[in-house]
Each structure stands twice: as C-alpha cells, then as structure tokens.
Design a protein that fits this description.
- This protein has 14 helices and 9 strands.
- The chain is α/β, with parallel strands linked by helices.
- Strands 1-4-5-6-7-8-9 form a 7-stranded parallel sheet. A two-stranded antiparallel ribbon has the order 2-3.
- Strand 2 and strand 3 form a beta hairpin.
- It is globular.
Length: 338
C-alpha cells in the first residue's frame, strides 16, 4: 500500500499513482482554522513562535482534516520579520500581518549579512518544528513554505513604491530581489537539512494581473527559478502557487521550473493542462465554497477536479479561519473515496 509521502513524490516525478494526493501546503495556504485549534488546544498566535507548539498544531491539522501532508509555518511574515519589517502576530482568528515595511524605496535598502539573519528570529522556530515533525511522521510529506521573492521584496519595501520602481529603477529592484532570494534559498536549505520533504512557494504579489507578462518574466520567473534550482540541487521537489487570473502570463508558465503549479479557483486546470501538456497541476477547490458552501457542492467540485485530471487536489488559496472542519473533510473524503 502506497503511503502519502510516496504518492505525492511519485506525482511530482510525473509518474502515475492510484489517485491524486489531497494536500494543503501551509504558509499562505494555511488550514489552522479556529475549530481545529479549539479541538486540539494548540493555538495561534502562540504557535507562531514556539517550535513544539507549531509542530503540534501542524500535526493536529493533519490528524483532523484528512489532508495528506503537514505544512508549516502558518503565515507569510517569517521572512519579513527577519528582514526587519514590523509584524503583528494576530489572534486566534486573524493571521499575522506586516504593519510597516522597513524601507520606502528599493534604492534605500541596506543589505545585511544573510547568513547572520538565517540564525535569528522565527526561521529557527520553523526549522526546529520541521525536525520534530519529520521524526514523528516519517511516512507523511513535510512541506516547508517560503514567501515568494516578489512578495518578500514587497514586505521589505513599500509595495506601491516597489511596483513603480520595477519600471523606473529596475537595477535597484534586481538588487533587492537578489538579496531576498539569497535569504529564501538559505531558509529552504535549512528546512531541507532538518527533514522537509518538499518546499512550497507562494508569491501573491507576483501575479500576471499586477505585473503583466514582461515584469512577470523579469522579476518573478527569474528569481523563482533561482530558488527552484537551489532546491533541486538538494533533490527536493518544489511547488509554486500563483494567485489570480493567469491569462496574461499563461504563455510563460512553462518557463517556470517548479515541479507543480498551484492556481486560484478562477483558473480552469483542465484547460491549463491542455495548453501545457507536461505541467503537473495542483488545486483548486474554491475556498469560498469551503467556507460558505454545502457538503454536496464541495464534494461535487472536488470530484470534478479529479475527473478533469488535476494531479494534486488542494484548496485554491488560504482557508478562512472560520472554515468548518466538516467541509474540509468532505473535500478530502471525496478524493479518497473516488
């Protein structure tokens, strides 16, 4: 009998399996709902900064939902905080947020020693939690999450200013993206060294709608592929989530060297697979449906995605903390029961 780690890794190698894996990566795609936290007694915001609590909450999500992976951390602020931006850890029902970026413009960014930063803040918390989980669950894929390079840069520099500078001062922006990409690669390597099975990147600022095709290639694909190549050197696969409507950049997706592409609910994955036959698709059960829908509609949409040949079934984006466990289980059961 194939275990969840073998099933997911087999799919990411492009080989056939008995059925699609059903996962929720963590990071931006966080499934730490209020119901799960109350059931387990492991809660946020405390688990953001305590490795044992982080591991216990991640394990509770796995045990209660039926997702076939464990993913950490539960937010997209770890890198921003390391880089010096101001972060609030939120509440039980509200995820952490960046309250103030360090720099107003890319040209102002002061580069610090990346190796020194890798030994500070919550990076150590996440890496230690990965180690705890990898030892506790050897047959379950442990997914370590990164905030994508454009979004990380936009957490260091005021995002409105940064996007303007992509056009006006590209050289300064490349300097910042090189800097944050070095940090992200270092973070990924530490998670891998401690037992992460897979690395996942979510880069919500790097959408075709925001950047357009030229800047998407210059500022998103270039630095995402740098991370992918560094992770592949460690023989670890990598997932990439792309937010929003992909029509403006669909012709560029095949240039991304990630092992699977996860998309928002607005993207038709059957059409994407027809357009790029070799792509490994991931997604994209509507998180709106998971929050407000019925068991019948969640099961129907999930089964349709399986029928459409989607390789990995997952929520289309981050789950609301008010999402009911019943509807999450409806989704995971629909995949497993066929």
């Amino acid at each position: 009998m194939i275990n969840p780690k073998e099933r997911l890794l087999t799919v990411l190698r492009g080989d056939k399996v008995d059925r699609p894996p059903v996962i929720c990566t963590g990071g931006m795609m966080n499934a730490a709902t209020v119901e799960i936290m109350n059931n387990s007694g492991h809660t946020l915001p405390e688990a953001h900064s305590d490795p044992q609590l982080m591991a216990d909450l991640a394990a509770a999500i796995y045990e209660q939902t039926g997702f076939e992976n464990i993913g950490i951390p539960f937010c997209m602020t770890v890198e921003a905080e390391i880089l010096g931006s101001e972060v609030t850890y939120g509440t039980l029902a509200c995820e952490p947020k960046i309250t103030k970026e360090v720099f107003l413009t890319a040209s102002e960014v002061i580069m610090r020693d990346v190796n020194e930063m890798l030994g500070t803040g919550r990076i150590g918390t996440v890496v230690e939690a990965v180690g705890i989980l990898a030892k506790r669950y050897p047959d379950i894929p442990i997914i370590g999450n990164l905030t994508g390079p454009v979004s990380t840069a936009a957490s260091l520099v005021d995002p409105v200013s940064l996007l303007k500078e992509f056009r006006k001062k590209p050289k300064d922006c490349h300097r910042v993206l090189d800097y944050v990409t070095d940090l992200l690669i270092g973070f990924a390597k530490q998670m891998i060294a401690n037992g992460a099975t897979i690395i996942s990147i979510s880069d919500p600022t790097a959408t075709g709608e925001i950047l357009g095709p030229n800047m998407f290639r210059e500022f998103a694909i270039r630095y995402i592929n740098r991370i992918v190549d560094a992770v592949h050197e460690k023989n670890i696969p990598i997932l990439l989530h792309i937010c929003g409507n992909m029509n403006a950049v669909r012709s560029l997706i095949s240039e991304i060297r990630a092992d699977a592409i996860s998309t928002d609910a607005v993207v038709n994955l059957r059409e994407l697979k027809a357009y790029i036959p070799k792509i490994t698709t991931m997604g994209n059960v509507s998180t709106y449906l998971l929050q407000f829908g019925t068991t019948e509609k969640v099961a129907s949409q999930t089964r349709r995605l399986v029928k459409d040949g989607v390789d990995i079934i997952s929520p289309a984006c981050g789950l609301s903390t008010s999402t009911s466990l019943k509807l999450i289980k409806t989704m995971t059961d629909a995949v497993k029961e066929g």
